[in-house]
Amino acid sequence: MSHVDLGYAQECESWEVDSYLFPSKIGGKPAWLDLQNLPSPERLQCENCHNPLVFLCQVYAPFEEDAANFHRTVFVFICRESKCCVRNSSCNVRAFRSSLPRRNEFYSFDPPEERRLAEFCPSRWTKLCSLCGCRGEKLCSKCKKVSYCSREHQVVDWKEGHKGECEGDASQRVSSKLFAQFEVVIEAEEVKEKRVDESEELDKYRQLERDGKTGTMRDLSDGDIEKYAVSDSDKVFTQFKERIGDNGEQILRYERGGAPLWIAREPTPESVPECEYCGAPRQFEFQIMPQILSVLHENELDVGVLVVYTCSRSCTSGDDYKSEFVFKQDVALNNL
Questions:
Q1: pLDDT, tens only, 43-78
Q2: Contact by Cβ (8 Å): 262, 305
């Protein structure tokens, strides 16, 4: 029996993924949980090019048994520069975790009604970058009305339309720097057991034998031969494909405290660093799947799986948005 929840992309209206509805979503601007104490622009820079990262995904995953984590969301950001997307390196990806108690200064104690709230305005708490929705500490030097997280985004926004709006009312443009926005809906995984066709695998081995490619395996039993025939290809990649086969549109796998579904035999983490805030071990929480790039119509980046590990205690001391560990694993070259 699987304990994994799967995430699928679903088209939505922009208000349906606003912060007050505690969404899981991909693309667009982040729907911040704590609306006031956002990560600084410096924490949201790519380690390679030092340009601002772009919001990729957020997962609402509360610990309802823990009062301090009654609301809890994990955010993932990525650099859109293809040159920064290095095989099996997560230098271009960052993850942050935010938590709030049920009674807090931003949201109602009672569950929200699923309707548009015209009066909801996150920027009343913190100035947000007009382009990406992250913390905006810089102002347009001309109009002094529009905020930005960085000069890079100010220049992009100027070219994309702010130049013609600077003295007037700002429009609701969506920058080409951002990914398309979708809500993530969650469903329990249903796994159908699949059995290897032993006769088919033995036929493969007999062909290898006729071709003289079996090496020193002539003395193996038929049972051992069958095992070899299965593992001769990339067994991990085969298992990955089989596991997602019936749910090929999944963009997310969630199993707090579970295990990742690897796409390749290696690399895997030699060790996962402990939480730098409380010292507790980190545990697997979720992974972002390759299908997300297809949904987002992203052709420049090449990502296998992004595996996110978070503090097992979900501690609340230190930064309001706590850094967590992301491991990026790409498809083995022989399976491309």
A1: 999 999 999 999 999 999 999 889 999 999 999 999
A2: yes
